[in-house]
Write a structure and sequence with these properties.
By secondary structure, this protein is an all-alpha fold. It is built from 2 helices and no strands. Bound molecules: zinc ion.
Length: 40
């Protein structure tokens, strides 16, 4: 289904739940927070 591809292309980047900064999903342990917020 091409519609599925379009759906994922339109997904916004993951954002930090604390500061709203875009998160690169490199590690599953990031959860909903960016690297900076995750260190605290
Ligand atoms: Zn953050």
């Amino acid at each position: 289904m091409e519609n599925v591809i379009e759906f994922f292309k339109n997904l916004p980047p993951k954002q930090c739940a604390s500061c709203g900064q875009a998160i690169e999903e490199q590690h599953e342990c990031y959860g909903n927070e960016c690297d900076s917020c995750n260190k605290v």
